[in-house]
Design brief:
Blueprint: E1 13-19, H1 23-32, E2 39-42, E3 58-59, H2 69-93, E4 104-108, H3 110-126, E5 136-139, H4 140-146, E6 156-160, E7 164-165, H5 168-182, E8 185-187, E9 192-198, E10 201-206, E11 209-218, H6 224-229, E12 240-247, E13 261-263, E14 269-271, H7 287-300, E15 309-317, E16 326-329, E17 336-340, H8 348-361
Parallel strand pairs: 1-2, 1-11, 2-8, 11-17
Antiparallel strand pairs: 3-7, 4-6, 5-6, 9-10, 10-11, 12-14, 12-15, 13-14, 16-17
Helix pairs in contact: 1-5, 1-8, 2-5, 2-8
The structure holds flavin-adenine dinucleotide (FAD).
The site of flavin-adenine dinucleotide (FAD) has 40 residues, from helix 1, strand 12 and strand 15.
């Protein structure tokens, strides 16, 4: 992590304060950096829930947007922006975020899984608002061309050329390195307790004093529900726990990343994709879930049977109740924006290169209307 700047209360009023220094807040602050003279990123301490440090690092399009075509289109846009975003970060910071975007697979085991997934993808692609993109159902042999040593239990796979991976910790580091170089004030231990808008300026009460800004972006992950209430944005959150196993390093296997299994740029492997409704219990791994993940990984790539697990963790996915992103400017507190999403790695490029300029311009365009919190408050009678 980049060097931190500590802070005490000052009379200074920032142009922007971004609340939350995870991947969502950091990507937005990165995108705002050339549009404002003074930006502060307020972050909590090490006790915070931080999905950005516990995720799987996929840049993933397939499977996004079932039930909301606009989300598929938004994700496709981000996957297209990723190569330029990664190149820009490398140039500005020297940090290679290890983007590899040569396609991705969802491995399927047996007819039931295959038929269900195929029908699901077909429905997803037929929705209004979805921009068509290339995808295919592959049989075992076609999938094995992308994954040497693919297990016989994988009878089929869904493939798109748009999917890929990055190293999410390097991504976070690169973004924070830019803060350091570009004068963005990163303020750790500044958990925001209270937000008030006084005469057009937002005053944020933190344990380290009051921070003021003319505009704010709420990007505090799962805390966005509670903070949103303070600026008139009612966002029901629904955390979802994911557990991940890390395997020791091996030589590069040149296997296309899969939604449940990927090799990192330094050779280790991640096994994942469990989804549990476990409230806010993030520091818990459970043997039945880890055993299921491990079993499926070995059936997917039998050579992994010889590879040792070195650690496991769990983290909470930042999800609004329906699982789709939320972007909105408050009607009651103009100048307060909110950004929450379940795929902050995938969408980092869109947040930095598309959303941040919109926020800097002071208004979100109609194309982002589907992502407003209004969808949670539709009357049913
Ligand atoms: C197991 C797992 C696997 C995942 N895999 C992928 C994947 O493969 N691809 C993908 O795209 N996404 C993935 N995700 C999702 C991705 O990690 C999240 O969407 C992303 O990290 C969310 O970032 P965030 O900044 O919104 O939240 P967080 O990372 O939770 O950050 C929130 C930040 O806000 C700060 N904060 C909280 N409250 C306050 C406050 N009151 N004041 C100031 N600061 C505050 C915290 O300190 C924290 O730094 C995964 C998530 C999990 C859990």
């Amino acid at each position: 992590m980049a060097a931190a700047t500590t802070s005490t209360t000052t009379t200074r009023t920032h142009d922007f304060a971004v609340i939350g220094g995870g991947l969502v807040g950091s990507a937005i602050a990165y995108g705002l950096r050339n549009s404002a003279e003074s930006i502060a990123v307020l972050d909590e301490g090490d006790v915070a829930l931080r999905a950005s440090r516990g995720n799987f690092g996929l840049v993933w399009l397939q499977s996004k947007g079932y039930g909301m075509g606009a989300y598929s289109r938004w994700t496709l846009g981000s996957t297209r922006q990723w190569p330029r975003f990664a190149a820009q970060l490398l140039e500005e910071t020297g940090v290679d975020v290890a983007l590899e975007q040569k396609g991705g697979l969802t491995p399927l085991m047996g007819d039931y899984e295959t038929e269900a997934r195929l029908a699901w993808m077909q429905k997803l692609m037929a929705q209004p608002g979805v921009e068509p993109y290339e995808w295919k159902l592959l049989d075992h042999h076609q999938a094995a061309d992308f994954v040497p040593g693919l297990g016989r239990d994988v009878t089929a796979a869904i493939w798109t050329p748009h999917d890929g991976i990055v190293n999410p910790l390097k991504l976070l580091r690169a973004l924070h390195t830019v803060f350091h170089h570009s004068g963005v004030s990163y303020l750790p231990h500044h958990g925001v307790e209270k937000i008030e808008q006084v005469g057009g300026v937002f005053e944020m009460t933190t344990a380290k004093g009051t921070v003021r800004a003319r505009k704010i972006v709420l990007a505090s992950g799962l805390r966005n529900g509670a903070l949103g209430e303070q600026v008139g944005l009612h966002l029901p959150m629904a955390p979802q726990r994911g557990q991940i196993i890390v395997l020791e390093r091996t030589r590069p296997l040149d296997a296309m990343p899969m939604v449940t299994l990927r090799q990192n740029d330094e050779g280790s492997w991640l096994v994942g994709d469990s989804q549990e409704d476990a409230g806010y219990a993030d520091h818990v791994t459970t043997l039945p879930v880890l055993a299921t993940l491990a079993d499926r990984a070995v059936r997917t790539l039998p050579a992994l049977k010889e590879v040792r697990a070195v650690r496991a963790w769990s983290a909470l996915r930042v999800r609004a109740q329906d699982g789709f992103p939320v972007y909105e400017q408050s009607g009651s507190h103009p100048g307060a924006f909110i950004a929450t999403c379940h795929s902050g790695v995938t969408l980092a490029a869109a947040h930095a290169m598309t959303l941040a300029p919109m926020i800097a311009a002071g208004a979100l365009p109609p194309e982002l209307a589907p992502f407003s919190t209004r969808r949670f408050h539709v009357q049913t009678t």
